[in-house]
Amino acid sequence: MMMAMIRVLVSACLLGAKVRYHGGSAACPSDIIARWLDEGRVVPICPEVAGGLATPRAPAEIDLGADGSTVWRGRAGVRTSTGDDVTNAFVAGAAEAMRLAAEQDIRIAVLKEGSPSCGSSFTYDGSFRGVRVAGQGVAAAALVGAGIAVFSEEELDEADRLICTLDGEAENRSRSAD
Fold it and tell me: First vs last Cα of the chain: how many Å apart?
């Protein structure tokens, strides 16, 4: 019996895709990511682009006092620095991340820290003054709510250890089924 490979959802900007609001990437040169790519584990996504936003675009932040989970639950919004409401695009992008995770049986994601979509431990406060607040972005919150382990690009070692653990569990299940 062939065991299923543990796949990992990764923010496309970390892989070098120029999908960030300013038209650039947040390429994360890493031996771990390079190995995951070589192993065919990586499923790339930019929730903001998947939700229909253009590149480049005005920067966006979650409403003051809210976080990604409140946006995901329909109780807060996401606005650009020019005042446009882009909540629907952020929710649609999070839904696409959820769809990919379900389709690919993904249990781990590595997402861009600080992003209003992908931030795993902080985003910005909605004032567009660079003030960090604890909380998750919309896609990160949706994924965590679905039981997916979400890490930032600063936590690659931890994500890799979890993949190794899950690979071992999958291998043990495969052996016991034979």
Answer: 7
The candidate with the shortest Cα–Cα distance to 151, out of 114, 108, 96, 90, is 108
Q: What is the pTM of this model?
A: 0.93
User: What does the pLDDT profile of the chain (178 residues) look like in tens digits?
Assistant: 455 789 999 999 999 999 999 999 999 999 999 999 999 999 999 999 999 999 999 999 999 999 999 999 999 999 999 999 999 999 999 999 999 999 999 999 999 999 999 999 999 999 999 999 999 999 999 999 999 999 999 999 999 999 999 988 755 544 555 5
Single-letter code of the amino acid located at 68: G
Strand, helix or coil for residue 136: coil
Q: What angle do CA 108, 114, 120 make, to 5 degrees?
A: 30
> Which is it for strands 122-124 and 42-45: parallel, antiparallel or unpaired?
unpaired
- In angstroms, the CA 38 to CA 22 distance is 29
Judged by DSSP in three states, 60 sits in: strand
DSSP calls for 105-120: T--EEEE-TT-TTT-S
